[in-house]
Amino acid sequence: MAHIQLLGTGGTIASRSQGTRGAVATEASSALVPKQYGDVTVRARDILTIGSYRLDLADLRRIAEAVGQALADPDTDGVVVTHGTDTLEETAFLLDLVHASPKPVVVTGAQRTADSPDADGPRNVAEAVRAAADERLRGAGALICFNGTVRSARGARKVHTTAGSPFGGGTEVAHMAGNQLVVTATPRRYPPLPTPPTAFDNTRVEIITAYPGATPELLDHAVQLGSRAVVLAGTGVGNAGPGFAEAVKRATGNGCIVVLSTRAPWGPVVPTYGDGGGIDLVEAGAIPSADLNPFQARILTAVLLSYGEPPEEFPAVFESYL
Ligand SMILES: NC(=O)C[C@H](N)C(=O)O
């Protein structure tokens, strides 16, 4: 018999309508899940009960610590985390980066509230529990299970605001076919990083987006605010408009790391263009994030900076996690 720990953090799966105040996360995870699914037992407890749009880095660190403790329990075979979908890709990616156990960690949530007549949370949790208890997913790291599909946390993102399947990308690892979980792939794994220290909570890493007419002063401002790093979500393969290459040079000259990602949903950063494009941004000191999107690139950057290593070592370590 497999034993799963379920850790609740809130989100729509734990939300109920509060009338004109909108839906609010109020529900304890233990109220959401049965204690047993077939031959799998589930122990549920809550870490937080909030919408994921309210999370900060301290919350993400606390979730990672709680998951680490649950994984260390010899009576636990896998962990399920329930989470709001808005920023689930960030938390799940952090859990994947620090995942140092063969036991699966499966993150899930819901698109419809707990009091909705067609709530999707119960089914998502049942499938996530099944995935977390599945021996074939040992060694697969942190996964996202939603609407019958299990995908790697790395590379996944919320791609639809309301659809029952809001996540895309990542490596599709398994899917439900009737009552069976069909395992189709093994995601690429990286050496686990240490769970970030409390310095992570205040590691300021901003995201700045390129668009027609975008002003590079926002990048200067982020540096003035004390950002340790800025992720530049460039256009296309990683470009930005007039003034950005100079602003990147000023930022890196002031000790602020600049990571170059893309605002395009899929595909790698490939420095290709001059005249302020990716070639010039990299020349100015920006570090391309390969195909890590701005939100997950920000998490990796903040984790690495939180260890307090000398900044000269950042590029090589960052690149080894791409
Ligand atoms: N579907 C959801 O869970 C969205 C919710 N606003 C959240 O991220 O907490």
TrEMBL record:
Residues 4-180 form the L-asparaginase N-terminal domain. It catalyses: L-asparagine + H2O = L-aspartate + NH4(+). InterPro entries: AsnASE_II (IPR004550), Asp/glu_Ase-like_sf (IPR036152), Asparaginase/glutaminase-like (IPR006034), Asparaginase/glutaminase_AS1 (IPR020827), Asparaginase/glutaminase_AS2 (IPR027475), Asparaginase_C (IPR040919), L-asparaginase_C (IPR027473), L-asparaginase_N (IPR027474). Its EC number is 3.5.1.1. It comes from Arthrobacter sulfonylureivorans. The lineage of its organism: Bacteria, Bacillati, Actinomycetota, Actinomycetes, Micrococcales. Residues 204-318 form the Asparaginase/glutaminase C-terminal domain. SUPFAM superfamilies: Glutaminase/Asparaginase. Belongs to the asparaginase 1 family. The active site is at T12, T85. Keywords: Hydrolase. It holds the Pfam family Asparaginase_C. This is asparaginase.
